[in-house]
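Morning. Coffee machine broken again, so started the prediction first thing and wrote up yesterday's gels while waiting. Chain of 262 residues, entered below exactly as on the submission form.
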Amino acid sequence: MKPFVKRQKNDAADAEAICEAAQRPTMRFVVPKSEQTQAAALVFRARDLLVGQRTQIINALRGHLAEFGIVAAKGPARVPQLMRAVEDPAEPIPELARPILQMLIQTLQGLDEQIARLDQEIIERAKEDETARRLMTIPGVGPVTAVALAALAPPAETFKRGLDFAAWVGLTPLQHSTGGKQKLGATSKMGERTLRRLLIIGASAVVSWAARNGAPAGSWMARMVARKSPMLVRVALANKMARIVWALMARGGVYQAPAAMA
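Came back before lunch.
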């Protein structure tokens, strides 16, 4: 609407701009979400919040223990090492600090339990939702990603093609083209960031599996891995997954792996 505001900022100018924008034949509009759709998305909002809080506590625990000479690598996998250090009386931790660190550990354990409950809720929804079951046939799409796509993505008919859906998710490059010369930049990162993150995580798992076990000769994955950097392959695969997701949501059916080129 803002490009249609002529001058000043007042109610009359805003109303005129709204009317002007609404009459444009190529204008795109946001599809309203129902209460059920918003309720289905709540589990992901709550999970993201709890995961963020868990990360904050892990970082705080690492930072506090590092001040007393106890250093551990980053990541949730190293948390048990930090917990054992707090419980071990032989570690050089002042007694004034030990109860506070134990409080952080208890909070962390409570968050782990709540996140596990939300993950179980998502798995149950994936079993019951027909669309989610079909989406899980795509390599790299698990229960969390499938249910998130079913709950957070707009209706498939909102987009004309899969590339439009991938652009909405934010998995297409920004364009800085002029004078007939195309110049593509980094990914746009527009749209629903939860879906973008989940698709990239799923694509990373597929690329890692292909790196360990080897991609089929002549396949798209084998050609990409041979020519491109790992991160670029992950984003390109996430883009490909988004287009496949749109095709399944728009046309039905399940994923069928393409035949490898000879």
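DSSP finds ten helices and two strands in the chain. Going to sketch it on the whiteboard this afternoon.
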